[in-house]
Amino acid sequence: MPKEQNKKFLEQINNIILDDTNKTFLIFAHQNPDGDALGSALACKLLLENFNKKVQVISIDKTPSKYKFLQNSKTIENLSKDNKISADIAMFMECSNISRSGFDEANIDVKTIINIDHHKVNDYYGYINWVDATYAAVSIMIYKIFKYMNVKISKAAAECMYTGILTDTGRFQYSNTTLDVYDIVKELVKTGVDVNAIYREIYGSRAKSYISFMRIFFNHLEFLKDDLIAISYIEQDEIDLYGISNEDSDGAVDFLRDIEGVELACFIKPKSNGNYKLSLRSKKCVSVYEAAKEFGGGGHKYAAGFEMQADSAKEVKQKILKVLLEQKLWC
Ligand SMILES: [Mn+2]
Predict the structure, then answer these.
(1) Is 265 exposed, middle or buried (0-12, 13-18, 19+ CB in 10 A)?
(2) 20 to 30 A from 281, CA-CA: which of 50, 201, 268, 331?
(3) Distance 95 CA to ligand 1 centre (A)
(4) Residue 163: which of 273, 46, 324, 319 has the closest Cα?
(5) Does the pLDDT of residue 83 top 70, yes or no?
């Protein structure tokens, strides 16, 4: 996206924040929030508080324990779907549509919606729709607002944005890790961010239930098409038996992608709504986005996902394999 267009969005967001009649803000993360959704929401809260706004960060799901080190994570309000929420402004962090936040549009009473996302597929449901897939993380977009509005970045805000960038770039390893990312991270770390402590919080504190998950994950792991495809899954009864959390299976599909020679990775797990969630990853040649789109999902070229109805994860696996085995896996 051309830089001038980003300037237009920054100008509009700036004006809304500086408008004294906008006193109360809601910030929504998406369901099953990750480091970027939480980091961007909490950094945005700190930004708005500089302008004496009353800010509520709202999440339908509990904060995963690995992100509880973020100083203001305790202020996140876990509300249920039926809660009626009102404020002057609502901001949505990487939600492709309002229901991605887990909340019902009918229950949210605001004057204006600001939609900030870095995923390709987005319903443009806001008054401002700053959607730009060239950004590695929504946390970078929040950083841009800090810079545009000339707000000093505190260590607490820097930790939030650093967390979003760290996790969404796969610890600075994905192809979205541009020079610009390093420039921003340098500025954030300069505020005193303890990168080793954050690393230990996010990646260095595995739960026992995670180990139970990995046992099952390896048990179900299968390689196909000359080992170019790796696929695994978990069933609901296994989750119940070992007390496996959503958090435990986060990153499972990335683990499959990272196996030598694997070009296409797929992981399947049950969701609380009774559907199955399929996560797809690829390395160089395949666009998993195209496959996910066919099933009504979304994402990026190398990372995408969608939901499917079935009686078991095993059944989903058989269905998706028919599609995956048709893919051209080399280039
Ligand atoms: Mn993100």
Answers:
(1) buried
(2) 201
(3) 10
(4) 46
(5) yes
Find out whether 302 and 260 touch, Cβ atoms under 8 Å. Answer: no
- 224 Cα–ligand 1 center, Å: 30
What is the average pLDDT across 94-110? 96
**pLDDT, tens digit, 9 for 90 and up, residues 209-244:** 999 999 999 999 999 999 999 999 999 999 999 999
Please tell me what DSSP assigns to residue 305.
E
> 42 C-alpha to center of ligand 1: Å?
14
Length of the chain: 331
C-alpha 135 to ligand 1 mean position (Å): 9
Of 300, 31, 33, the residue nearest 292 (C-alpha): 300
Give the tens place of pLDDT for each residue, 290-323. 889 889 998 888 999 999 999 999 999 999 999 8
Per-residue model confidence (pLDDT) at position 298: 86
- Distance, CA 330 to ligand 1 centroid (Å)? 28
Three-class DSSP labels, 47-81: HHHCCCCEEEEEECCCCCHHHCCCHHHHHCEECCC
Ligand 1 centroid to residue 152 C-alpha, Å: 23
Rounded to an integer, what distance in angstroms lies between the CA atom of residue 237 and that of residue 90? 38
Strand 264-270 relative to strand 24-28, pairing: unpaired
CA 21 to ligand 1 center in whole angstroms = 30
Which residue type is seen at 101?
S
Percent of the chain with pLDDT over 70: 99
Distance 226 CA to ligand 1 centre (A): 32
Q: Is the pTM of this model over 0.85?
A: no
What is the CA(280)–ligand 1 centre distance, in A? 16
- Rounded to the nearest whole angstrom, what is the distance from the C-alpha of residue 29 to the centroid of ligand 1? 10
Higher-confidence position of 289 and 91? 91
**pLDDT range class, residue 1, cuts 50, 70, 90:** low
Helix (H), strand (E) at residue 200: helix 195-203
The residue assigned the tokens 């959390």 is: 245
Centre of ligand 1 to C-alpha 161, Å, is 11
Q: Cα–Cα distance between 137 and 50 in angstroms, integer? A: 22
